[in-house]
Design brief:
Elements: H1 4-13, H2 18-25, H3 29-37, H4 44-54, H5 58-62, H6 84-105, H7 122-132, H8 144-150, E1 154-157, E2 167-172, E3 178-183, H9 191-207, H10 215-230, H11 233-239, H12 246-256, H13 260-269, H14 275-287, H15 289-298, H16 306-315, H17 322-329, H18 333-341, E4 362-364, E5 368-370, H19 376-384
Parallel strand pairs: 1-3
Antiparallel strand pairs: 2-3, 4-5
Bound molecules: zinc ion.
Zinc ion binds near residues 73 and 204.
Length: about 375
């Protein structure tokens, strides 16, 4: 017996309409609709053809469980600028990565989400979040993705960039819902931009999870939260006194790891610079575009690692056995590999000023150790304990 919803999931991952898949399979569109709706079981021959065409194994379609993976902040995007199939495809990739993480995490002792939620305004929440992440207001956030993964936020990098979506977030799973941020087009963005995006999505997770309301207001609040988290108002007021020069703005950009536009916008919205200063900085930015881009491109990418670390920990001390993993999670090897390799490896996941002792190793059964850094020393040390 196959689960129609699984066929729907695969079709949407592949970005196909019912009609397009039907054509590939040489059946009518209504046949696909009936199978997906659970009204029809495909004959043996058709099922084989579905597997051949989609490259997904039979076991994937036979799975009964379907994870709850809502659209989350994808719903806050204006309909006009985004076509529905891109939203669906983004969501389905997120779901697939979440399902892999769920499967792997059963064998691991992964961190549980530990940032308090609750109803406070965006600015207060940003301040509380900062201190929960271990920062004093004077201190720029070093690696936001690392800090959030350590706090149990699942962050995934999508293997397929989509043109109009940079990221989305959602609370996923039936019981014990987990916060998930899916980066869709991080590869094409600078780290500075990605950090703001991640902070923005974190705001949706913490402030808008169960609320219905004005989506424009949600967007404004998420930006307020992100700006306060990355560039606290109180500290900015001390840093930006009098007219702001481009050179000084660049310095703040590098130190606080946000885009130059974010620095200038922040200075303006906090009334630290005049309208004229603001406008003139924008002109200067466009003149110095190349130079600023050069600086931004030199910054190492912040990239999520949790999913890859989970896969590595599962097979440690050996390398990831993709054949075995594909069997375990019921996915075709090429898709699985593409997903895992879209996440940061050990070398890519280096935090500038973290000392080895800060790299906490998270224990999981069978005396294996699991950490998002997973350095060899960590493991040796852990095994000898
Ligand atoms: Zn948003």
């Amino acid at each position: 017996m196959i689960n129609g919803l699984k066929l729907k999931q695969v079709r949407e991952i592949l970005g196909l309409t019912q009609g397009e898949l039907a054509e590939e399979l040489n059946v009518s569109q209504s046949t696909i609709a009936y199978i997906e709706g659970g009204y029809l079981q495909p004959a043996e021959e058709l099922l084989q053809k579905i597997c051949d065409v989609t490259l997904f194994p039979r076991s994937f379609f036979e799975r009964i469980e379907v994870t709850d993976f809502p659209y989350g902040s994808l719903l806050y995007r204006s309909r006009a600028s985004l076509d529905a199939s891109e939203k669906t495809q983004a969501n389905r990739y997120g779901q697939l990565m979440f399902e892999i993480a769920e499967k792997l995490s059963r064998r691991l002792n992964s961190p549980q989400f530990s940032l308090p939620k609750g109803k406070v305004d965006a600015i207060t929440r940003a301040g509380i979040t900062r201190s929960n992440l271990g920062y004093v207001p004077e201190e720029p956030i070093d690696d936001l993705i690392y800090d959030l993964e350590k706090k149990g936020v699942l962050i995934f990098n999508s293997p397929t960039p989509l043109s109009k979506i940079d990221a989305f977030s959602t609370w996923a799973g039936f019981e014990n819902k987990k916060p998930v941020i899916v980066l869709i087009s991080a590869e094409d963005q600078t780290t500075y931009r990605t950090r703001f995006t991640v902070a923005h999505e974190l705001a949706h997770l913490m402030l808008h999870a169960t609320l219905f309301g004005d989506i424009h207001e949600f967007e404004r609040e998420a930006n307020t939260f992100a700006a306060e988290l990355l560039l606290p108002a109180e500290i900015m007021a001390g840093l930006i006194v009098g007219p702001l020069s481009l050179l000084r703005a660049i310095k703040i950009m590098e130190e606080w790891k946000v885009s130059i536009q974010a620095v200038i916008k922040r200075a303006h919205e906090l009334h630290l610079i005049t309208d004229n200063n603001y406008k003139s900085l924008y002109v200067q930015i466009s003149q110095q575009k190349k130079k600023i881009q050069e600086i931004e491109n030199k910054v190492p990418k912040e990239k999520p690692r949790c999913l890859r670390a989970m896969a590595e920990a599962t097979f440690y001390p050996k390398k990831i056995n993709y054949q075995q993993l594909a069997k375990d999670v019921g996915l075709p090897i090429p898709i699985l590999k593409k997903i895992i390799e879209a996440q940061a490896n050990k070398e890519e996941y280096t935090r500038s000023n973290v000392t080895p002792s800060e790299r906490k190793v998270i224990k999981f059964p069978e005396n294996r150790s699991f950490s998002y850094h997973l350095t060899d020393e960590d493991i040796d040390e852990d095994l000898s304990n």
